[in-house]
Each structure stands twice: as structure tokens, then as C-alpha cells.
Design goal:
It is a single chain. The chain has 345 residues and is α/β, with parallel strands linked by helices. The chain folds into two domains: 28-177, Rossmann fold, CATH 3.40.50; 180-343, Alpha-Beta Complex (L-2-Hydroxyisocaproate Dehydrogenase, Chain A, domain 2). The protein is 46% helix and 16% strand. The protein has eleven helices and eleven strands. The protein has helices at 4-26, 46-54, 70-78, 95-99, 123-140, 153-167, 180-194, 229-240, 242-249, 258-275, 319-343, and strands at 35-39, 61-66, 85-90, 104-107, 145-148, 175-177, 205-207, 214-216, 281-288, 296-304, 307-311. The protein has a six-stranded parallel beta sheet with strand order 3-2-1-4-5-6, sandwiched between helices. A three-stranded antiparallel beta sheet has the order 9-10-11. Strand 2, helix 3 and strand 3 (85-90) form a beta-alpha-beta unit. Helix 5 runs parallel beside helix 6 and helix 6 packs across helix 11 (319-343). The longest helix is centred in the last third of the chain and has 25 residues, at 319-343. The termini are far apart.
Length: 345
């Protein structure tokens, strides 16, 4: 059970956030009003994600949408005493109202993985949902930053891009595949093995967002730790299989919802900071890229007022990471092409 002191700390951190922003060079400027829309807000990821976005002081308007159950979630979240206004929208006919004026759209909508399912098994259901939602985004908030959580991200990001291209609204700087959970896991697992405080750990994770396409660059991890090669290989495998670890631990009753909501909220916060002009906001994300020969690739991205300001290179790789990079390319290429094909059917 969370102690009252921890709850007070969480709340005070949320309410202090705006003043923290001011101290970073924006004291004379009010924090801009920002609308964030969560599509799939009544789901296993959507509910805790909605809670975390309600705690974010950079959000002035929180728009919660799902096909059912949203009014209850919105009512529940709206009672939290932070500054943002919350409105719930339900059903196809209210999707447009949910999206109008959104600065950031977060999409956790879709069905979760069950034991024995691969991310690929989810494809037809979630791909159809993403296509429908992105068609609406193109119409009602074409300039929003779109944060794609719905799996398989390696395919749903290309689907979204093709939908936006058809609508004439595509901007590669404004479409992100959220791979932050891979980074969160890599940091946690590395800190445990390196015996260092996790708060100070950084590990870039590149490639994609499924199985072997997830490539944590432990050779670039900070603080440095002289871990044996077999430990690095085990850490890499655990990061790649993190989702499966949770699915199996929940024994058929869910997938990674809480950690994914946390990761989604972290990335959305980075997007909002970038929009507000906070300097040097860098996160890993699956975006349109020329870092490799593949059209989309996850790497470090500098965020700013236009979304992607710069896609950063991979940096020096160990022999093990270079081998992993070459191994992941065929699978990632196949997933990207599958998404493009689906969108153009």
C-alpha cells in the first residue's frame, strides 16, 4: 500500500512542475495551455496513463476517448485536485470532439497480448483500430504530435504514416512510436546488475519495439560498469523479452499495462516540454529515419517545438551490438512493409 507521505510527494511533484519549468529560463512566460487526448482511455494502459497525465502540470485539458466506459474513467480522474480539465468522450460519433484542438494525441487503443500471442498475432485487430483513429486525427487535429503505443508499433507507425499521407497531412516530425518502455526496462535491469542507483542510469535503446528488433546499447550505458559479456547478453535478452515476462507472470490476465502507462506518460511529458521550448529534450523513439537503410528506426531523438528537431545517430557500437543490429534489420523491414501494405489495401 502506498504511504500517505508518498502520495503527498507525488502530488507536490505534480503541482511544482510548472515552477520547475519556469526556473529553466521561462520565468517571464506563462506555461502554454496544452490539450492532450488519450485514445483508448478506458483500457488497461489507458486508465493509469490518464491518471498520470492528470498529474502532469503541463496539461491544461485532458480529453479521454474510448468506444465504451469513458464517462466513468473521466469522472474518476476529474476528481483529482490538479489543474487540468477532464472531459470523457465515448463512441465513434464523439471521436472528432475528443480530438479537436489536441496538441498531443496518445494512442494506447487496441487489444492486449495474451499468453502464447506474439505481437504479430495482434496485427489485424490493432491495425484496423489504428487506421480508423488516424483517419480521424488527420481530419480533426492534423498538426498534433501523435504518440503511438498500440502494438505492433513496428507496423502501426507505418500504417499511421500512410493514412496521413493519403489525407495530405503527413509530417514525419510529428509521428512517434513510443519505445520508452524498452528504455525503462533496460535502465532498471542494468541498474540491478551494475549495482548503481537506477535514477542516474541512462541506456539508449534502438531498432524497433518487438523481440530481437529491440537493441539496448549497454556499451553506451551510464554510469559505466564493467559487466561481463554473458551478463550483457542476458540483459539484452531480458529487455527484448520484457513484455513476455509480464504476460506470463500475469498468467493470462493481462500484459504490461502499468509500466507501459508510466513509459507513455514519460514520453508524452518529453513531447510537451519540447513543444514548450525546453532545451535539450532527448528521448528514444521509433520515427521516420535515415540512420539506417530502413525507412523507420528507433534511436535517440531531440524534441522541440515542431516535434522531431533532430534524429541522432547510433554512436559507437560493440561487436555484439553491431551483430544485433544486422540481425534485427530483416524482421523490422518485414514489419514495416506489412504495415504499409495493410494501410494501402
Amino acid at each position: 500500500m502506498m504511504k500517505p507521505s508518498m502520495l503527498r510527494s507525488l502530488h507536490s511533484a505534480a503541482t511544482r512542475g510548472a515552477s520547475h519549468l519556469s526556473r529553466r529560463g521561462y520565468a517571464s512566460e506563462p506555461v502554454p495551455e496544452r490539450k492532450v487526448a488519450v485514445l483508448g482511455a478506458a483500457g488497461g494502459i489507458g486508465q493509469p496513463l490518464s491518471l498520470l497525465m492528470k498529474l502532469n502540470p503541463l496539461v491544461s485539458s485532458l480529453s479521454l476517448y474510448d468506444i465504451a466506459g469513458t464517462p466513468g474513467v473521466a469522472a474518476d480522474v476529474s476528481h483529482i485536485n490538479t489543474g487540468s480539465e477532464v472531459v470523457g468522450y465515448q463512441g465513434d460519433e464523439e471521436l472528432g470532439k475528443a480530438l479537436e484542438g489536441a496538441d498531443v494525441v496518445i494512442i494506447p487503443a487496441g487489444v492486449p497480448r495474451k499468453p502464447g500471442m506474439t505481437r504479430d498475432d495482434l496485427f489485424n485487430i490493432n491495425a484496423g483500430i489504428v487506421k480508423t483513429l488516424c483517419t480521424a486525427i488527420a481530419k480533426y487535429c492534423p498538426h498534433a504530435l501523435v504518440n503511438m503505443i498500440s502494438n505492433p508499433v513496428n507496423s502501426t507507425v507505418p500504417i499511421a504514416a500512410e493514412v496521413f499521407k493519403k489525407a495530405g497531412t503527413y509530417d514525419e516530425k510529428r509521428l512517434f512510436g513510443v519505445t520508452t518502455l524498452d528504455v525503462v526496462r533496460a535502465k532498471t535491469f542494468y541498474a540491478g546488475k551494475a549495482n548503481v542507483p537506477v535514477a542516474g542510469v541512462n541506456v539508449p535503446v534502438v531498432g524497433g519495439h518487438a523481440g530481437i528488433t529491440i537493441l539496448p546499447l549497454f556499451s553506451q550505458a551510464t554510469p559505466k560498469a564493467n559487466l561481463d559479456d554473458d551478463v550483457i547478453k542476458a540483459l539484452t535478452k531480458r529487455t527484448q523479452d520484457g513484455g513476455t515476462e509480464v504476460v506470463e507472470a500475469k498468467a493470462g490476465k493481462g500484459s504490461a499495462t502499468l509500466s507501459m502507462a508510466y513509459a507513455g506518460a514519460l514520453f508524452a511529458d518529453a513531447c510537451l516540454k519540447g513543444l514548450n521550448g525546453v532545451p535539450d529534450v532527448v528521448e528514444c523513439s521509433f520515427v521516420q529515419s535515415t540512420v539506417t537503410e530502413l525507412p523507420y528506426f528507433a534511436s535517440k531523438v531531440r524534441l522541440g517545438k515542431n516535434g522531431v528537431e533532430e534524429v541522432l545517430g547510433l554512436g559507437p557500437l560493440s561487436d555484439f551490438e553491431q551483430q544485433g543490429l544486422e540481425s534485427l534489420k530483416p524482421e523490422l523491414k518485414s514489419s514495416i512493409e506489412k504495415g504499409i501494405k495493410f494501410a494501402n489495401q
